[in-house]
Amino acid sequence: MDKNIKICLVASDSDKASEALSTLQEKYKENLVAEVEEADAIITLGGDGFLLHYLRSHTDLSKPIFPLNLGTVGYLLNDYETELSLLDRIRKSESINVSPLALTIVKEDGTEEEGIAFNEISLIRQTPQALDLRISINGEVKMDGYRGDGIMVATPMGSTAYNLVAGGTALRLDSEKIALTTILSANPRGWIGTHISNQDSVLIENRNPQKRKARAELDSVAIEDAKSVEVKQSEKKYTLLYDKGRSLDVKIDRAIFPSLI
Predict the structure, then answer these.
(1) Is residue 25 domain-shared with residue 94, that is, in the same domain?
(2) N or C: which end of the chain has fewer CB within 10 A?
């Protein structure tokens, strides 16, 4: 990037993020622009959830994002360090491209909702009863009568989040795969799911929505009374910037190949 980097700062409403915003506004006032379109890079200040919210809210975004952690975990983010030059970090950063899942959710009343998910989409039970699901890949029914608390489709970006906790395996960013992972599978018992091509289309249908209600969860957004979810990988790509040697793909590799004790 050019030495005269123009940045746009956006922050969550937390006290930590607001304080950091004031600090950076003063420190880099000569490099600030008010409009995203004028910036060379966008700096997000918040947690992982804020980054995902910002990405979902800006579906036409064409500028790279250098996300700084002013939240809790910050797995998807760079460390917030006041001692280092933010402009130098951006200049030396490594870029990765991520694509969300594009979703069509049909509710019990027949209405449809479109959405995207950067980590995962889950169809999960809304009541105490297990779900009864039909799973189709590219129009072909692969499983008719899956029972369990639910099932999710996760991107490589999100494969170390809920997917890993549920028993799925992490995926490299360049794997060209997405994860289909079960949530407490009862039938078939012990099945944890599989990996499929990111070019595949997945349709998950609730076979008994009147008795066994389901909720669709798109990252942190919940849609009640979901009857079916169709999932495809979006063709849209977003660019994230990371400190060299500490990027998201490095973190995922460490999850795939953890350190030996």
Answers:
(1) yes
(2) C
Q: Count the neighbouring beta carbons within 10 Å of the beta carbon of residue 199.
A: 11
Instruction: Flag whether 229 is in a domain.
Output: yes
Both tokens of residue 40? 């060379």
Please check whether residue 241 lies inside any domain of the structure: yes
Question: Distance (Å, rounded) from C-alpha 251 to C-alpha 258?
Answer: 10
Catalytic residue set: 48
Q: Which residue has the tokens 């994230």?
A: 240
Overall number of domains in the chain: 2
- Owning domain of residue 130: 101-233
Q: What is the mean pLDDT of the chain?
A: 94
Nearest one of 123, 127, 133 to 231, comparing CA atoms? 123
Residues 112, 179 within the same domain: yes
Are 35 and 63 in contact, with CB atoms under 8 Å apart?
A: no
**What is residue 261's DSSP assignment?**
-
Q: What is the DSSP letter of 46?
A: E
Yes or no: say if 89 and 107 are a contact pair by the CB < 8 Å rule.
no
pLDDT, tens digit, for every residue of 152-185? Answer: 999 999 999 999 999 999 999 999 999 999 999 9
Let me know whether 171 and 207 are in one domain.
yes
User: Within a domain: residue 137?
Assistant: yes
Q: What is the pLDDT of residues 21-70, one digit of tens each?
A: 999 999 999 999 988 999 999 999 999 999 999 999 998 889 999 999 99
Closest residue by Cα to residue 70 from 129, 120, 23, 137: 23
- pLDDT single digits (tens) 222-252: 999 999 999 999 999 999 999 999 999 999 9
Q: Is residue 1 part of a domain?
A: no
Q: Are 65 and 239 in contact (CB under 8 A)?
A: yes
